[in-house]
Design goal:
α6 (168-180) links the parallel β6 (159-162) and β7. The termini are far apart. The strands form 2 sheets. A 6-stranded mixed sheet has the order 2-1-3-10-4-11, sandwiched between helices. A 5-stranded mixed sheet has the order 7-6-8-5-9. Helix content is 43%, strand content 18%. The protein is α/β, with parallel strands linked by helices and 328 residues long. The chain has 2 domains: 35-128 and 255-323, Bordetella uptake gene, domain 1 (D-Maltodextrin-Binding Protein, domain 2, 3-Layer(aba) Sandwich), CATH 3.40.190; 130-228, Periplasmic binding protein-like II (D-Maltodextrin-Binding Protein, domain 2). The protein has 11 helices and 11 strands.
Length: 328
């Protein structure tokens, strides 16, 4: 090889890194176009409302429209599948809720994605604690201990209602019963509204419900809140003890709402989204809007959020096997 040809090749090789850097520099900074947040439930529900509150904040923070797309069906599986198969570029996100980690327990044979590993966790945005409520007449006691004593005296006779078999309320109830050794009669419904109505009317003894779904009735005295399943008391019901304070230590059943991206989304994009989520949690307007829904801001991100999802998915799968639960 001639000296001239060798020098030409060396010069060309030296230019390659510069060309790559030039191409990177020319790539549009993220976000260069509108973002889409997919929600697995119809408009107006708690997951949808959290998504819209966050989208409004994120639009201002990122300088791009953030569009909420409702894709209900199959207990949020359709939405999760759409995001899991979307390009991992940060423009398609999922606003998931607690039921997302129940997918492996109930639908593992039907889904085409892994509820944990097919996604990159960003941050949780809000949480609504599960609260045990009773009606004005069905349970005479006004404390968790009195409730448990009456259930213990009539094993399998006292009832609890849920929005359906395999719902978050069902899992929360069965976790409580297993921890306390109590036995109750499960009455599944097709939605939360009728459960609340029947607890108030005395047709049901109790329900483990998200605080947002029963807060107005508790505040009006139509339901009695016995305990909240959170590490600390809710600012919305400061007079109601946690389960730990009431004697059932280790029981927790918060309903969380969080942001997920497709697996493989660039770290820089996830970091940018995490920053936006952190600002969201600190906004007084966010706190006011969420508390009006019976929720509070929650900010658990990336590895911590992913570890919680993995732990919950495994726990729900074990419980589903014990109960022989299968999706209807």
């Amino acid at each position: 090889m001639t000296t001239l040809r060798l020098s030409h090749r060396l010069a060309a090789a030296a230019l390659l890194p510069l060309a790559a850097a030039s191409t990177w520099a020319q790539a549009p900074a993220w976000p260069a176009k509108p973002l889409r947040i997919v929600v697995g439930f119809s408009a107006g529900g708690p997951t949808d409302v959290v998504a819209r509150i966050f989208a409004e904040h994120a639009s201002r923070a990122l300088g791009q429209p953030v569009i909420v797309e409702n894709k209900p069906g199959a207990n949020s599986i359709l939405a999760a599948e759409a995001v899991a198969s979307a390009p991992a570029d940060g423009y398609t996100l999922l606003l998931a809720a607690t039921n997302h980690t129940m997918i492996p327990a109930l639908y593992s044979a039907r889904v085409k994605f892994d509820a944990v590993r097919s996604f990159a966790p960003v941050c949780t945005l809000a949480a609504s604690p599960t609260v045990l409520v009773t009606g004005p007449a069905a349970i005479t006691g006004k404390t968790l201990n009195a409730f448990m004593q009456q259930v213990r005296e009539a094993p399998g006779k006292r009832s609890y209602g849920t929005p359906g078999t395999g719902s978050s309320g069902h899992f929360a109830s069965e976790q409580f019963l297993r921890m306390t050794g109590l036995s109750m009669n499960h009455i599944p419904y097709k939605g939360a509204a009728q459960v609340v109505t029947d607890v108030m009317g005395g047709q049901l003894d109790s329900s483990f419900a998200t605080l947002g779904s029963v807060l107005p009735q508790v505040q009006a005295g139509k339901l009695t809140a016995l305990a909240v399943a959170s590490p600390r008391r809710s600012a919305l019901l400061p007079g109601v003890p946690t389960f730990a304070e009431a004697g059932v230590k280790g029981y927790s059943a918060d309903a969380w709402y969080g942001l997920l991206a497709p697996a493989g989304t660039p770290t820089a994009v996830l970091q940018a989204l995490e920053k936006v989520a952190g600002q969201f949690a600190e906004q007084p307007a966010t706190v006011a809007k969420l508390q009006g829904l019976g929720m509070e801001p929650q900010h658990s991100c990336r590895d911590a959020f992913g570890a919680d999802m993995d732990r919950d998915a495994k726990a729900y799968s074990r419980l589903a096997r014990e109960l022989d639960l299968k999706a209807e």
